[in-house]
Amino acid sequence: MEGFKKFLLQGNLVQLAVAVVIGAVFANLITAFTEGFITPLIGIFGGIPTFGDLYFEINGSRFMYGAFVDALISFLITAAILYFFVVMPVGKLLERFEKAEEATTRACPRCLGDVPKKASRCGQCTSELTPETV
């Protein structure tokens, strides 16, 4: 039982649960925004007030394609927000850290170990190096 408690209280599991709950609430928010604002705006120009009410019938079966259009618009807005406000900034931040790490070291020509660019001697094989200006 102790192991199960430890598993439930692990940091990653709790963070994942919080992320799922916030993601679900965020999806509901985007859906409400789409149905409340975006769909009526598109309806003004397209002449259709609500996509959710659109359907067609075949042999008495209703196919509610309007709900799909609303869901598709919600998905595209959510994906765009996540990409432009989460994925791109985090990618640029990681790229900066990688460039900073690359700029501080170089490979030793003899042992191929990592050496600071300003070093005049390799710390691993002790061969003499010409310091690079940073």
The percent range for helix content is 55-70%
Strand % is: 5-15%
CATH topology: Non-ribosomal Peptide Synthetase Peptidyl Carrier Protein, Chain A
Average pLDDT, rounded to a whole number, is 82
Alpha plus pi helix count: 3
Cα radius of gyration in angstroms: 28 Å
Strand order of the largest sheet: 1-2
Kindly report how far apart the N and C termini lie: 56 Å
Tags for this entry?
134 residues; Non-ribosomal Peptide Synthetase Peptidyl Carrier Protein, Chain A; two-stranded antiparallel ribbon; 3 helices
Offer a quick outline of the entry.
The chain has 134 residues and is mainly α.
Walk me through what this model shows.
The protein is mostly helical and 134 residues long. It is 62% helix and 9% strand. It is built from three helices and four strands; from the N terminus they run ααββαββ. A two-stranded antiparallel ribbon has the order 1-2. A two-stranded antiparallel ribbon has the order 3-4. A hairpin with a 2-residue loop joins β1 (56-58) and β2. It is elongated.
